[in-house]
Design goal:
Largest sheet: 4 strands, antiparallel
Radius of gyration: 16 Å
Strand content: 15-25%
Number of strands: 4
Structural class: alpha+beta
Helix content: 25-40%
Shape: elongated
Number of helices: 5
Distance between the termini: 43 Å
Oligomer: single chain
Length: 136
């Protein structure tokens, strides 16, 4: 598995950046993109000549995400974004326990991002709410 995909979908224990990572875009063939999508997709895998998209759990984001491979002139590239509340199935909903566990384990950025996604609030509101949850 290519390094960036291993980093994105592999197990992540903190929010630190790998300083040795290459920030360049990595291109793939349609076959490589489709094989990876088939391996990672949990639901809604759809493939066409111009895109491949699906829902997967992305370990480095500690969340379920909408993943899409897009065809460009040089090859296929992947984009990833978190699911909105409306896109989530019941078992994919973000819980207080999930947020607090991430925060206590030092994954504060992920905890705040998940809270902001769930509650649709700003950064300060999310931080204040998590601190309140911790003190309860």
């Amino acid at each position: 598995m290519p390094r960036f995909l291993k980093k994105l979908f592999g197990s992540s224990t903190d929010d630190s950046q790998d300083s040795s990572a290459d920030d360049g875009i990595e291109y793939f063939t349609y076959g490589q993109a489709l094989a990876f999508a088939n391996e990672q997709a949990l639901r809604e895998l759809t493939a066409s000549d111009s895109s491949i998209y699906y829902i997967a759990h992305v370990a480095s984001m500690h969340d379920y995400c909408f993943c899409e491979w897009i065809k460009q002139d040089e090859g296929w590239v992947m984009t990833v974004r978190g699911l909105t509340n409306q896109e989530r199935l019941p078992q994919e909903q973000i819980t207080d326990d999930q947020i607090l566990t991430l925060f206590r384990e030092g994954n504060r950025i992920s905890a705040v991002r998940l809270y902001r996604t769930r509650e649709e609030v700003g950064l300060k509101e999310a931080m204040d709410a998590i601190e309140q949850m911790l003190s309860d």
